């Protein structure tokens, strides 16, 4: 089971190896993390950073990616901090630099951080999602063969720049390129921030600390940067796509580059991370529910395990099913993506299949926008529901839920705000719909749009995996149709394309949501159907049914509206979900164990593998809160309060004079 | 408008007065709160505490309650800290002490904290919701006329006790009373924890700090307490209900006391607090959306205000409507509750109306359980949606959303876990249903269950307030019927009452949810319909329609299932919600202003009243994060990294030897 969930035995073994390694590494101590100060957290992050450099330069990419995936679960803060230097800065070089530029920066030490520590300076105070609207300028100075990087006003201050506050020596700065007074749009300029020997700021560079955030305080290192006429050599502009010659001649690429790949990789990893983080929270909540007892049932002395209450099963089992479904989706997405990239790489431009593969890539790219949104939302929701399911103890920092929530919350915002990404997915579905009615054969992810008979399909009442799949295809078809027809009607009424898209945004959003849930279900179903039939795959089929039917229950309005199920069948769905929750509960503990997360990684006494919840919790609380030798403010604050005499006070009536005050305020107001 | 929202002009004026007072009080400084350490937060909390003692002893209860309501919005941490001493400890004395006992404790200084600072020691490590299952014991020792308070094992440790860690001198300890070997259930014993002169712990009392929590760190003062055979005089047992004589004769009350009142008061204040906290978050999000611009629409140079995007209106306007709806619900609940208590107080036991009033009180009590649950959930959800609607800046601590979320989250758990409370409400609805079919006339809150024609009602397509009200009555009727019928069927199949209730818990939950939303809508509708017709009340009618229709959209499955609306009408509902969002957006800024929350209270630069978002945000970030004089870890960590030579490393292949390791792990595993 565990091997299936991890994709391969090798992946599982590697995970166990990495878990054992970090459990023993002092920099990766987790149990004291809740009580560290901002400065202590930062310093420890930097220690981890240094400890990872060895692996990044020596391990295969595949192995290192698995390592980072694990780090992402154990320590999201650090994962981000590392991702900034490698994913973003190095990614910017890889996608934007010419081969010569790339080898220049690698020679200067970008890979091993020996010479250059990079950061990624895109976002500005007043501009996030709209990259084309960034306001930092890069003006070409022909005389010196340099660009002049400048922050024209406060709103153009680079903001949130991870690693800038106290670590980075260089930044990939995104700025509006201006040559001879003409604007050419946003390009990237590698700009030195600090002297690598003394670490003093370069002339014209102002850097400050962004300060406290909701979570991921290990990257407190987020900074802001203002440039005041900072000069960089022309050669430090990344010129793979747009080139500027010594004479200031600008050559722009004939076509916008194919950037699907880069975004798709990030989104796939966020889908996987959503599953992993949800599994971490669920490991704690399910184990706790197996230990915690509450209210005795009649004569039996022992109180009932929380997990045996139907409502508690309802709270957790669908979330377990969802986390597993998203996990398999992530695995398949990864494989699909690798297959497509490989096919593209080895294919000749004349290959007749090229177009199909590109279509598939484009479709997966659009779907991945929706997946990123709905999977991160689902995970955030799961973490908070797990916290609530542990009652008061879930509110203790040592349960680790507060940190999990705070760390994860940003996933709904960065790399594209979830709502905006959902609308992008919806826009693409509207487009796919248009292509389908023109008779075009669509890519697999949206192929159900080619089959218009699905629109009026009815359930055969079996509620089996095929029935559920047809149900999702039916409602997704209908809600996409609704959004597309609204869009067309708006166009006909004279709106521009952009206006029409804005006006139908609620319907686009719903289309993206139902398509995405159906897509997750389909990938999960395919994964379990490919397995050989045995106890494990039977259990996963049960889990898949629970996921599909629970989501139908959640979105029941659409199934009734489009007539796939009638009211009686919807009641049957609820009964089935009740029964499936009980069935999954009976294997909940082995299922949770197959997530293979060590006590060190989950870092919560409530989820201790051996069930020693209260003992571990008490020990951790004691260790984290040693008694002070002396009361910090008894003499200054408490003693005077306790020993105070009431007679010290003035007569309350005259002292308060409340009604006079209110009268005066009212008069003031009337006089205004 | 603002007066209407605050219930009276006096309430609004008082709020403005209190806001002005705390804005100038150094202990209530809020802007630096995100960067204070645990110890600093605690000390400041104690300063606030001392500053409030004057008001509690001198202000009228009504005025002081309004003062605390405001404090609850500005500083939830402190509000809790204060509530522990006054609401809980004093509340325990009021409800449990005889008149003589009460005056004894008041003479010892309970009110002014001059002599006694109390805390409320109910919850134990292993017991929260199930108070009857508490395991601390209080054994009567006839010889010395004392009770011996004892913690028998770790799970019985008093846990989460607010104020215990470093402030309280006494505790109201809930313990199983044992007299002559017989257990009499949980009673309350006022137990001294610390010497009031020296503050040293009393013999046998062990106290520790519970440490870091998700939020409300100003009450870090949560402690745990273990008692090792601690003796308290018999007279310190609260004896209003159960008495123990000098000879150990126990007299128990003939009937369980009527405790509706106490719980109802707390729940009403949590409904009001849900509205206020949601309004605080919405003030920030809506003002920010009016300032933030993103993407330009075509040729127009200026980018579009976020608030003008239909999807952004969809994100925020229904939440504005909901916060207002809950606010009016809170006001009416308060009035209803006061009227009922007054009626009960002045009524003779023989009064023929007594029974009606008691029924009404009972119904309101049950409904208030559902209201507490769904209003606190709605508010928590609102805070996070507001955060997300502000993009990346919502993740900054200085936006204040992270603290608002963390502080509010506990409201879903304490005073009854929301899921459990919902089920209690559902249980009472099942009971009401049973009474209705026996022909009993029900209290107003559930009177629609007396009208069985509502079950098959259909919409007249007007979608006006009456149509919406009938819609809610129709679906609530049907889902309560479903839960009740499931329950009856389970009883018939031979289940015990308790088992049957557990088995139908999902249906009970749904019944409580739909009843509660319909109830909120009804109270809001009644409030606006009582207002004289003018521009303001028209606007509030629009808000009420938005609330009712948006919630129908959210729960559309039930309206389709029970046939109140058909698919075409449901599409109309969506169109109406779109249009109403745009309409409310047009008055969004004045609506938000009428919430009357000062810049000091909202404590977020993103929501500055004058729109100076970026300037204020930048200034706050700078003030909170002064540049360090020296880099904290450049020499220790960064310099060695930057100046490292790659040649220092061993040959990567042999160093890694990864495949050998994995082989070994696999062999180990197979050998198991």
UniProtKB/TrEMBL annotation, chains A, B:
Cofactor(s) essential for the protein: FAD
GO cellular component, one term: peroxisome
Domain annotation Acyl-CoA oxidase/dehydrogenase middle: ranges: 119-228
UniProt-annotated stretches for the region Disordered: 645-672
Catalysis: reaction(s): a 2,3-saturated acyl-CoA + O2 = a (2E)-enoyl-CoA + H2O2
InterPro entries noted in UniProt: ACOX_C_alpha1 (IPR055060), Acyl-CoA_ox_N (IPR029320), Acyl-CoA_Oxase/DH_mid-dom (IPR006091), Acyl-CoA_Oxase/DH_mid-dom_sf (IPR046373), Acyl-CoA_oxidase (IPR012258), Acyl-CoA_oxidase_C (IPR002655), AcylCo_DH-like_C (IPR036250), AcylCoA_DH/ox_N_sf (IPR037069)
Record bears the keyword Transmembrane helix: no
Pathway(s) this gene product operates in, as recorded in its UniProt entry: Lipid metabolism; peroxisomal fatty acid beta-oxidation
Gene3D superfamilies given in the database record: Acyl-CoA dehydrogenase/oxidase, N-terminal domain (1.10.540.10), Butyryl-CoA Dehydrogenase, subunit A, domain 2 (2.40.110.10), Butyryl-CoA Dehydrogenase, subunit A, domain 3 (1.20.140.10)
Cellular localization per UniProt: Peroxisome
Transmembrane segments: none
Domain Acyl-CoA oxidase C-alpha1: 260-430
Domain Acyl-CoA oxidase C-terminal, residue spans: 464-642
An annotated Gene Ontology molecular function: fatty acid binding
Active site residues per record: 415 (proton acceptor)
Pfam families the record matches: ACOX (PF01756), ACOX_C_alpha1 (PF22924), Acyl-CoA_dh_M (PF02770), Acyl-CoA_ox_N (PF14749)
Gene Ontology BP annotations: fatty acid beta-oxidation using acyl-CoA oxidase; lipid homeostasis
Lineage: superkingdom: Eukaryota
Biased composition (Acidic residues): 648-665
This protein's UniProt keywords: FAD, Fatty acid metabolism, Flavoprotein, Lipid metabolism, Oxidoreductase, Peroxisome
Oligomeric form and interacting partners: Heteropentamer composed of five different subunits.
Similarity annotation: Belongs to the acyl-CoA oxidase family.
Protein name: Acyl-coenzyme A oxidase
Source species: Kwoniella heveanensis BCC8398
């Amino acid at each position: 089971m565990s091997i299936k969930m991890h994709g391969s035995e090798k992946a599982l073994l590697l995970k166990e190896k990495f878990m054992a390694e970090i459990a023993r590494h002092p920099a990766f101590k987790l149990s004291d993390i809740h009580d560290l100060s901002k400065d202590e957290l930062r310093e420890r992050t930097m220690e981890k950073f240094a400890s990872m450099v060895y692996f990044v330069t020596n391990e295969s990419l595949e192995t290192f990616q698995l390592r980072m995936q694990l780090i992402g679960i154990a320590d999201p803060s650090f994962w981000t901090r590392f991702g900034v230097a490698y994913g973003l800065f190095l990614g910017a070089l890889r996608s934007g630099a010419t081969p010569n530029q790339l080898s220049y920066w690698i020679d200067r030490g970008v890979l091993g951080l020996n010479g250059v520590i990079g950061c990624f300076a895109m976002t500005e105070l007043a501009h996030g999602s709209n990259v084309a609207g960034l306001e930092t300028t890069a003006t070409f100075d022909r005389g010196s063969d340099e660009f002049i990087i400048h922050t024209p006003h406060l709103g153009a201050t680079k903001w949130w720049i991870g690693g800038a506050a106290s670590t980075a020596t260089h930044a990939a700065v995104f700025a509006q390129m201006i040559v001879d007074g003409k604007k050419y749009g946003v390009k990237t300029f590698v700009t030195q921030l600090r002297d690598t020997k003394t670490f003093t700021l370069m002339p014209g560079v102002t850097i400050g600390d962004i300060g406290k955030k909701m979570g991921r305080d290990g990257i407190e290192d987020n900074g802001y940067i203002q440039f005041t006429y900072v000069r960089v050599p022309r050669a430090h502009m990344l010129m793979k796509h747009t080139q500027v010659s010594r004479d200031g001649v600008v050559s722009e690429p004939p076509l916008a580059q194919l950037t699907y790949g880069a975004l798709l990789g990030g989104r796939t990893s966020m889908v996987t991370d959503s599953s992993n983080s949800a599994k971490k929270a669920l490991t704690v909540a399910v184990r706790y529910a197996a230990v915690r007892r509450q209210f005795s049932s009649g004569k039996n002395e022992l109180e009932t395990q929380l997990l045996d209450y139907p409502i508690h099963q309802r709270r957790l089992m669908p979330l377990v099913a969802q986390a597993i479904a998203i996990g398999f989706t992530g695995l398949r997405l990864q494989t699909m993506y690798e297959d497509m990239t490989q096919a593209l790489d080895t294919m000749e431009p004349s290959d007749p299949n090229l177009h199909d593969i590109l279509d598939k890539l484009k479709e997966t790219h659009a779907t991945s926008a929706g997946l990123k949104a709905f999977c991160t939302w689902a995970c955030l929701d799961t973490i908070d529901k797990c916290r609530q399911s542990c009652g008061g103890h879930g509110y203790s920092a040592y349960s680790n839920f507060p940190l999990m929530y705070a760390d994860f919350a940003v996933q709904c915002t960065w790399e594209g705000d979830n709502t905006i990404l959902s609308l992008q997915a919806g826009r693409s579905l509207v487009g796919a719909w248009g292509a389908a009615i023109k008779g075009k054969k669509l890519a697999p992810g949206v192929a159900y749009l080619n089959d218009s008979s699905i629109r009026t399909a009815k359930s055969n009442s079996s509620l089996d995996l095929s029935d559920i799949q047809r149900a999702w295809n039916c409602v997704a078809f209908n809600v996409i149709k609704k959004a597309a027809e609204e869009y067309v009607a708006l166009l006909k009424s004279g709106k521009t394309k952009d206006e029409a898209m804005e006006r139908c945004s609620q319907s686009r959003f719903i289309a993206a949501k139902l398509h995405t849930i159906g897509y997750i279900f389909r990938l999960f179903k395919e994964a379990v159907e490919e397995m050989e039939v045995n106890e494990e795959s039977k259990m996963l089929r049960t889990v898949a049914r629970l996921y599909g039917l629970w989501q139908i229950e959640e979105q029941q309005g659409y199934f009734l509206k489009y007539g796939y199920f009638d009211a009686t069948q919807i009641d049957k769905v609820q009964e089935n979900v009740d029964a499936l929750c009980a069935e999954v509960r009976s294997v909940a503990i082995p299922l949770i164990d197959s997530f293979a997360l060590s006590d060190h990684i989950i870092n919560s006494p409530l989820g201790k593998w051996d069930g020693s919840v209260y003992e571990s919790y008490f020990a951790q609380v004691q260790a984290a809160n040693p008694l002070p030798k002396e009361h910090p403010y008894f003499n200054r604050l408490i003693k005077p309060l306790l020993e105070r005499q009431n007679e010290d006070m003035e007569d309350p009536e005259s002292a308060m004079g409340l009604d006079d005050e209110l009268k005066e305020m009212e008069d003031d107001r009337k006089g205004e």
